[in-house]
Amino acid sequence: MGGKFLFDGPGEAPVTILLAHGAGAPMDSASMNATAQALAGAGFRVARFEFGYMAARRTSEGRKPPPRAETLNPEYRAAIAELGTKGALVIGGKSMGGRVASMVADDLHAEGKIAGLLCLGYPFHPPGKPEQLRTRHLADLQTPTLICQGTRDEFGTRDEVSQYDLSDRIELLWLEDGDHDLKPRKTISGFSAADHLKTLAEAAARWAGRLAS
Questions:
Q1: Can you give the residue range of the structural domain that contains 138?
Q2: What is the CATH number for 45?
Q3: Which residues pair with 49 in a beta bridge?
Q4: How many Cα neighbours within 13 Å face the side chain of 59?
Q5: Is 110 among the domain residues?
Q6: Does residue 60 lie in a domain region?
Q7: Is residue 154 part of a domain?
Q8: Which residues form the KANL3/Tex30 alpha/beta hydrolase-like domain (predicted)?
Q9: In tens digits, what is the pLDDT along the chain, a chain of 213 residues?
């Protein structure tokens, strides 16, 4: 990983959010940039990092495919240790990055190392394969969690997710007509991507305020 973090927001913010990227796009994708800036605008310090396979794409020829999500758990733990935050820490990420964070969250929360989990477009199942659920560990999750999901996300729509057995520590923020990048079709929803990111950031700030209290 090489200690390369991207930072947004005030360095002295009371809450830092550590975000990992999704399976196919890097930490500085347009979607990740816009989300980090929105969260920074709501008063968070935001740190982003890349898993090794994605960082390798910047230097080597050929694209390494993403590994199985659970094999990245040690890399996420290493990033937290390397980041070394002073205030409260929320971990999470986009899609697969949030899923990896969700798999390590309870151990870290029990150890007092993190305050919460923030997932942006959680991949509840692969697109077109609603029977292949990735929710088993979410049923008894103990870490306070906010999942921000578009209502038409092909990895888990509002109708599908309403059927799942999820821990009562999980709060869901539904963004109307949002896709997997949380982007709505403006002509249909009346909302822009920027509107949804502002809603997300404000909701995250209120949620984090409750964690702190």
A1: 6-212
A2: 3.40.50.1820
A3: 20
A4: 7
A5: yes
A6: yes
A7: yes
A8: 15-208
A9: 345 899 999 999 999 999 999 999 999 999 999 999 999 999 999 999 999 999 988 887 767 788 999 999 999 999 999 998 888 999 999 999 999 999 999 999 999 999 999 999 999 999 999 999 999 999 999 999 999 999 999 999 999 999 999 999 999 999 999 999 999 998 999 999 999 999 999 999 999 999 876
